[in-house]
Amino acid sequence: MEESPAYSFYADQPRPQIGWDTPDGRWVGIWGYDWPDQLGDEVLKRATDLAYEVWQPDLRADRVYTHQFPNGLRHSLFPAVIKRDVVSLGRRRHLKSESLLAELRRRLQDDVLVQLNNFRSAQTLEILELVKSDPAPLLITGHGSSLLPWEEMKSARHPATKVSLLLEHMRFMKAIRRANFVTDENQSQVKKLEKLLRREVGYLPMGSDFDFWIPRPADWTRPPAFDKLKKEGKTIFLSVGNFISRKRFDKLIEVFSSLANVSQFCLVLVGHGEPNYSSFLKRIGSALVERGQLIFVDYVRGEKLREIYWSSDVYVAAAASEGTSVAAEYAAGCAMPIISALNNGIADLLTQLQCGLVLPEYSLQSWAERFEQVLHGDSLRALPLPVVKEYYDWKQVASRFIYVYRRLFDTASRRKIAFESQAREQVKAHA
After folding, report:
1. Would 216 disulfide with which of 256, 310, 385, 397, CB 3.0-4.6 Å?
2. The pTM is what?
3. Is 90 left (phi over 0), alpha (psi -120 to 50) or beta?
């Protein structure tokens, strides 16, 4: 992983069950909810011959902390510090973990595959420098949620910014060409990468459990609070995620505020996140809250979250950029119609199948017009469940990752055999 645990997101939550006190009076912890943890869990259910470890830099850690889950997955936290990224001329900061790099250097002697979850970080480049002369297979998994360097160059104005992005682009190309295989969970991003690299790029999104995320049962009844909203004739819009600016919850509030006097609706926002941004959302949404047109729900999971999905009418995925929103996958599994911004992996599928609604580039007027059309009766089709399961069910997604792992291990094994054979021939020739 590339990011330190998001302790600030959980500041108002109890400590996780997996945690340790640190000498400075703080603590480090592992929740097990991160993307690699979930992928590893699903892989280990289906591939008993594979071991799976998640390595994560941690700004709080004073030493390496490791926990092994009952499924066999190991998650380790490595001490890290923040450094300025030299290649970006100091514009960006990145995490650096010397202990993680040292442990990787040692473990490369084993039969391992290295999977990186970021294209652009400085740590990715450092790991590539370690791996490049080793036969260990390397997989880079993109999550479609960040602009690539040359895309940022289009809007950059300052000459120094353009230079730093050019250097980043050169680093990016070096990194991604070293990979044995590249995947991304956004189909549009896959197409861009294939055009750039002139090679196959795999489409592998995040998965969901569609034995749990299912359509609302016919005999199910809404909880009283939601039932009251429906009796008032309100259309309930739902959006779920971390409260960070990229998710654009503030834009949703802005749009619905412009419709507050003309439409019957309630916007439900579920999540938690950066304290400043969370306070900002509640401040700009206070008028809607007073009217009963906006409800904030603290971070919930499992059946409580599913109950909110079943209680709502339309799901909204508004992020400025997203791989494939897992929260939107849940909505698809619940047979909810989805409204999505352009740069979300699920928007590709909505467009292909002419389902839901894909919003244009953000402007208050254009988004308000689309939502008003929905509120005034425009019908939205939910994605067909068989297609949803084919694309996003963990049974499918994990099996595809296992196939990629096995193919890369097999290729690396053949390369190692060829290398050892060549070395023996050289020894004989020298003798």
Report:
1. 310
2. 0.89
3. left
